[in-house]
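Hi support team,

I submitted a single chain yesterday and got back a structure, but I'm not sure I'm reading the token output correctly. Could someone confirm the output below corresponds to the sequence I sent? I've pasted both exactly as they appear in my results page.

Thanks,
R.
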Amino acid sequence: EIDDNAAEEEKAELLQQVDNDNSDDEAHNPGEEEVIRICVLGATGNGKSSLCNYLSASTMFEVGDGFDSCTQYSRSHSFFHRIDNREVHFEVTDTPGWFDCDRSDKDRVPSAQVMLQKMRECMKISESGITAFFVCVPFERISIDTEQSIYFMRDCFDSTQLRHVYLVFTKCPGGPLQSVEHVLQSLLQQKNKGRAASALVYNYALHINEQVFVTNTMHDDEKQLMQTRDHMLRTVHDIYGECGIVPDGVFQTALKNYQNELHRLQQMHSHAQQEQSLKYQRMVTLGAVVGVGAAAVGLNGYLKYNALFTDHVDLQSQASTLHQQTAALHESNQQLQQENNVLAQNNAANNRMMGVAETTAGVLWATVEPISGAVAILDGLSRIWYGSKQK
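Hi R., thanks for writing in. Yes, this is the structure output for that exact sequence:
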């Protein structure tokens, strides 16, 4: 028995070595050999390539060290894994960062055009028959790109095909030792705090019946890593035995739905453009009418203003003339007043002189005719008093 086990192990090592020498483009014929295929999806930096190396126990997939994707095209690699004393043939496919969000608007929900492109790419990959789709989700950083991948899987797989979809939480701080329950509990806590991305991932995990794996390929516990890998591959093997591969109609149906949605959006856009064009034409017509009316009103206002301005200038000229005439009259009045004062002074002096003369004559006449002399004296004093009052 010991020799048989050693022979089996040597055989497995030889098969693995031969498989590693095969090219990435090697075709697999399901009719000749049973191959269980896994497709890994996710955004750049989510650990897809590391997961593929981990599952295939190889280094066939280049791993990036930053945020730029080093996987430009889909790549596949075949390997064998012993399950129940039988070498099972697996194939894992690494995909580029399909859901990388490089648009300026940073939409959380991918557009219909983006979804159509991704579905066509998935249809091309699934032509060989995919048993399980692994969606990589970094536990500590759920980006918009990851949200888009969740929306993509949610729209492509209905409730009858959810058995083929698994969330794989990568880069978990606790490594493989961290339980699925702990991860889901952490997501629930983040959801309760109002984190939209965590809520989306948590709800989708429940939607796929908590089909979740927790990994950390950088963990030091090699034994635990191998146990987790064996658990993941055994689970996919069970899915293959129970459900087979993802039906071709899954992506075709979703593709048709999105094509119809895109056609509807294009019709709405065309209708909106027509409405906008008609609205613009009406605005131009209304603007022309309003412009002509405004020009007429402006011209009429200008003419009225010009007439009023002319009248105002005339009135100002007349006012200036009247002011000059008033000044001249005032000056003449002052001169007449001065001459009147002089005449009044002369008249007062004459009255006083006549009063003195008449008084003197009355005194002299009083010696001859007392009564007549007294009257003359009174009349002379009266003239003197009147002349003094005028002064």
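A quick pointer for reading it: The beta strands are 35-41, 75-83, 86-94, 132-138, 165-170, 212-214. Let us know if anything else looks off.

Best,
Support desk
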